[in-house]
Design a protein that fits this description.
Layout: E1 3-4, E2 7-8, H1 19-40, H2 46-60, E3 82-85, H3 91-112, H4 137-146, H5 158-161, H6 191-200, E4 210-215, H7 222-233, E5 240-246, H8 269-274, E6 279-283, H9 289-300, E7 310-315, E8 328-329, E9 333-334, H10 351-364, H11 379-394, H12 402-415, E10 447-452, E11 459-464, H13 480-491, E12 495-498, H14 534-545, E13 560-566, H15 571-586, E14 594-599, E15 629-633, H16 637-653, E16 659-663, E17 689-693, E18 703-707, H17 709-717, H18 719-724, E19 730-734, H19 737-741, H20 745-751, E20 760-764, H21 780-783, H22 799-805, H23 810-822, H24 824-836
Parallel strand pairs: 3-4, 4-5, 5-7, 6-7, 12-13, 13-14, 14-16, 15-16, 18-19, 18-20
Antiparallel strand pairs: 1-2, 8-9, 10-11, 17-19
Length: 838
């Protein structure tokens, strides 16, 4: 099969398939999701209905016809095909289908006692979980008891493991779903990385495919747009299949004829994909099972040598209903379609709901209970009616062999899933636990190592310099390529970089031992070809680290990835990273670590202009739950390796730490002479905070916390002058509060005792809006030196000009610390007075 023109042809469907079964399960799915909205009185309506034929066909058509190969009983099996509900608000269609599947297996297991039909209730979604739709786990823990229903036979399933809370948008913990979908375009943007993962690991054409659902409105979002370039650059081919539900309807408007005037006829969704070089298929009716299965089969049997990613553009109806005829609901009137159908906005047991329910009752000869008596006012009775009518839908599993067919289809699909997959990379060990990656094992002297390409057999020598001698000129960014290179050497090329054409500038380029990655010509390259797409690049990195090839969920077998850009632009990466952090926290299996290189930070990007200053922007990387990320801010080349590998040791062993951020500045400075420091340990940065200058004998004048390159270099340059002036302060380098928090209490108290927080100032290239450490005293701001000292945006110019304007030049630092020391008694007295007034 090959493309004809700019579109690829969908082959006519000649193979038999169980269309009637799919249609029945599809109608059950539609009715169940409508019941969820009716009784919860919240959620989405039209979009989930539009996706339902896609959803049912993809899950139940079978692998030979291009459907998912998966095991409902082991939905997170590493070798299952990956399903991504990127259009996360459409999750009700999945909850409904998974509920029906779970009940079909539970019913069959109860009837036969055969273990092949057993699905762990903690993994499955069951009919009783309908009560948890859009509710929290805490509320579900006591819901039945609070309403006197704990022993009611309707809710017997809850005795096994309670009621599962079902979030309002897709979560990666949900059965087959592999993405936290919801924020427009965020979920789908990770798809290229998920697909590329299997090429990186050395899988063949039978490795998992990735099928993702999204809508045309979400594809206008920047992250989603960048996917188009990302996937083509990575040559992911048929492994990635994006299925678009094109119904020209968003939340509160249409796309064509709404947001975009119809007179602009050149605005065409199909052209927006073909022009990017994708392999595009068009389905005239994306709500027709024959057409959906036909395109699934066509994609499945496409030539794997065609490295274009695939997109299906299917015309769907937002607000689709299986029994509707010509946009009419029988015996009622107009069907609610388009953007007005987006939310479930109907009152409980409303006329439109009754009309939909009646078509289901008529088709299958069932009757819903109490729905014609108006809205249920009593909370207890609402729960009873809710579950009763969910069970009415589930009763169809006992008719016409539907339940048996569904259970057998799920088990047969699951049994076809292999537990062994030929991969180039080892999957029985986690390379990031290698002892050579521990701080204590790092080589101090420059290394020249011999490496052999496991694919081509080529050999080469590679130089790696994790530490440099005092006086050598090298800024912190120069150390980044070295730590990446060391990780790749130790792990066998498992640390992937994605950083556009800034890769050289921010020093990621030379972290790759074998150069640019190409799935056809250089699979061991770890430097991904990437455009200037901060959001797309980090999303691809997230897709890569979100996968594991290990059968043991407690062991990781995958890659780590790093994406970076100017610190000023990294907020473009924040939302995907935030969503990833949530996904990592709750993932049922170990995942890789996302790294963000916050390059060219601080005002030191001077000559580029203030649009490029990374002063405020890098602070977004502190906006995560404490303990789930490690943020590193280096000032000296010899801080980079020990601090980074201290963070890596933690992240490789503690699942909840899913992100490491590395903040570096552009300038090259002479490497510090640590023999002059109070803490002479070359590995001191691994402790997070360390003492550069300690108190001398005599009166003490307080603590100075320093962070950032120019600020610290300039401060160190005036230490002798400060001492000559009689200033007696302890100067502490703040590399990482997260690392410092993990040190023994004795060390933390020796460096920065709790009382010191009321006797300190900060010197930083950052801002007064966010300090390098928490809980500082009330006068810290008044005495500290920051790039925003006057609450103004800096202008630009040469580096010395900007540093002077920021008051971070040596003279300004000297005078400010001198004032801080001189006014110590006043500072302490003012704080005592404040406490005395309580």
């Amino acid at each position: 099969m090959a493309a004809t023109g700019t579109l690829s042809a969908v082959e006519p469907l000649t193979a038999p398939y169980d269309r009637e079964r799919l249609e029945d399960v599809g109608f059950m799915t539609c009715m169940t999701l409508v019941l969820l909205g009716n009784y919860a009185q919240t959620g989405h309506f039209g979009g989930p209905l539009a996706y339902t034929p896609y959803n049912v066909a993809t899950h139940l058509a079978g692998p030979d016809l291009g459907g998912l190969r998966f095991d409902y009983r082991r939905p997170k099996h590493p070798y299952s095909d990956k399903f991504m509900l990127a259009g996360g608000h459409c999750i009700p269609t999945c909850y409904a289908l998974w509920m029906i599947m779970g009940q079909a297996l539970a019913r069959k297991f109860e009837a036969t006692g055969h273990r092949r039909y057993y699905a762990d209730p903690h993994v499955a979604i069951l009919p009783v979980d309908a009560l948890g739709f859009r509710r929290g786990a805490g509320a579900m823990a006591t819901l039945l008891q609070e309403h006197g229903l704990a022993d009611h036979p309707l809710f017997a399933q809850a005795k096994v493991r309670g009621i599962r809370a079902l979030a309002g948008h897709a979560e990666s913990t949900d059965v087959t779903n592999d993405v936290n979908g919801g924020p427009s375009g965020i979920g789908v943007a990770t798809a290229a990385g998920k697909a590329a993962f299997w090429d990186v690991m050395g899988a063949g054409i039978n490795a998992p495919k990735i099928i993702t659902f999204e809508g045309e409105f979400a594809m206008t979002e920047g992250h989603a747009q960048e996917l188009k370039t990302q996937a083509l650059a990575l040559k992911v081919g048929k492994r990635l299949r994006v299925m678009l539900s094109d119904n020209n309807a968003g939340i509160d408007d249409s796309l064509i004829g709404g947001v975009i005037d119809r007179k602009y006829e050149g605005y065409k969704l199909i052209d927006q994909w073909t022009s990017y070089g994708w392999n595009v298929f068009v389905v005239q009716d994306g709500n027709a099972y024959d057409q959906v299965v036909a395109v699934l089969k066509t994609m499945e049997h496409w030539d794997p040598a065609d490295r274009r990613p695939m997109a299906v553009i299917g015309k769907t109806t937002k607000g689709y209903w299986p029994a509707a005829v010509d946009r009419k609901i029988p015996d009622f009137g107009d069907q609610i379609v388009g953007y007005p159908s987006h939310p479930y906005a109907m009152k409980m047991n409303s006329d439109y709901f009754l009309a939909l329910a009646k078509t289901f009752e008529t088709r299958y000869g069932v009757e819903f209970q109490g729905i014609r008596d108006g809205a249920v006012k009593d909370a207890r009775e609402r729960l009873i009616q809710f579950k009763t009518n969910i069970d009415v839908v589930m009763s169809l599993l006992d008719r016409n062999g539907i339940g048996d067919w569904l259970a057998d289809r799920l088990v047969e699909n699951g049994e076809s899933l292999p537990d062994v997959m030929p991969l180039r990379a080892k999957v029985n060990e986690d390379p990031f636990l290698d002892e050579r990656l521990r701080v204590a094992k790092l080589p101090v002297e420059p290394q020249k190592v011999s490496v052999t390409n496991g694919v081509t057999g080529a050999k080469k020598d590679v130089s790696i310099t994790l530490f440099r001698k005092a006086g050598e000129v090298a800024g912190t960014r120069r150390g980044i390529s070295e730590i990446v290179k060391w990780v790749n050497y130790v792990t066998g090329n498992r640390f992937v970089t994605a950083a556009a054409d800034l890769s050289e500038s921010i020093n990621l380029e030379h972290g790759s031992i074998w150069g640019h990655y190409d799935p056809e010509t250089n699979v061991l390259g770890t430097r991904l070809k990437a455009a200037i797409q901060e959001a797309g690049n980090v999303s691809t990195a997230i897709g890569l680290v979100s996968q594991s090839a290990s059968l043991d969920p407690e062991k990781f077998a995958g890659v780590w990835a790093i994406s970076g850009t100017y610190g000023a632009f990294t907020p473009l990466m924040y939302t995907p990273a935030r969503v990833w952090s949530q996904q990592n926290q709750d993932s049922p299996f170990r995942t890789g670590v996302l790294h963000i290189l916050v390059g060219h930070s601080g005002p030191e990007t001077a000559a580029d202009g203030r649009t490029h200053f990374g002063i405020f922007a890098p602070q977004v990387w502190k906006l995560f739950p404490r303990g789930q990320t490690v943020h590193l801010n280096f000032w000296d080349y010899n801080d980079v390796a020990p601090a980074y590998f201290a963070a890596a040791e933690i992240a490789a062993r503690e699942k909840k730490v899913g992100i490491i951020t590395l903040e570096v500045a552009r300038p090259d400075f002479p490497v510090a002479d640590r023999t002059t420091f109070a803490d002479k340990d070359l590995l001191a940065a691994a402790k997070g905070f360390y003492v550069i200058r300690d108190f001398k004998t005599g009166p003490r004048h307080g603590y100075v916390i320093t962070q950032g390159s120019s600020s610290t270099v300039n401060l160190v340059s005036v230490l002798a002058k400060l001492e000559a002036a009689g200033v007696n302060v302890r100067v502490i380098a703040a590399i990482s509060e997260e690392l410092f928090d993990r040190q023994p209490e004795s060390y933390r108290n020796a460096v920065l005792p709790r009382e010191a927080y009321y006797d300190l100032m900060v010197v930083t290239t950052g801002t007064r809006r966010m300090w390098p450490l928490r809980d500082v005293g009330p006068l810290t701001d008044e005495y500290s030196m920051t790039s925003d000292w006057d609450n103004q945006w800096l202008t630009s110019g040469l580096e010395p000009d900007v540093i002077a304007e920021a008051h971070l030049d040596p003279a300004s630092i000297f005078s400010s610390i001198q004032r801080f020391a001189r006014e110590r008694e006043t500072r302490i007295s003012r704080q005592r007075d404040l406490v005395a007034k309580l």
